[in-house]
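Review session, final week

We close the course with one last complete record, chosen because it touches almost every idea we covered. It is Phytocyanin domain-containing protein, a protein from Opuntia streptacantha with 147 residues. Go through it on your own first, then we will talk.
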Amino acid sequence: MESNYERLSLALGLILGMISGISSASTVIVGGRTGWTIPPSPSFYSTWASQPTFRVGDGLVFNFAAGAHTVAEVSKAAYNSCNTTNPLSPVMTTAPARITLKAAGAHYFICTIPGHCALGQKLAVVATAASSSSSVPSPAPQPSAVP
């Protein structure tokens, strides 16, 4: 009976170890308390984006006043020039707008309301691959056999 208990304990320990190693996605409120709006300075969102670490699977939540702003993912060139004509994603017009980072690499977002991007309402983030634990806890040592 003790042998079955030991096997069950070992299996449970391995399962719990694997589960605890799985990273969970985070939800990040873009701009913090400021939200998604024309920023107080053109560098506001780039400064803000340097604080959190973004990972694949994270959700970016853009909070803004209805009808006042939008958000769309765009190419780097469109981000740099504030070109709103060919967004990579549908333009989101209602808040909270949630966008999940689905791939590693740079992602660029702008407000498509005329003039807002030029005033600094744009965001660039770099998502890293979701971390996963490749280490599995070592199995517990087997007790010595007692004759």
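Two points worth writing down before the exam:
The radius of gyration is 23 Å.
Strands lie at 27-29, 54-55, 59-62, 72-74, 97-100, 105-110, 122-128.
Good luck, everyone.
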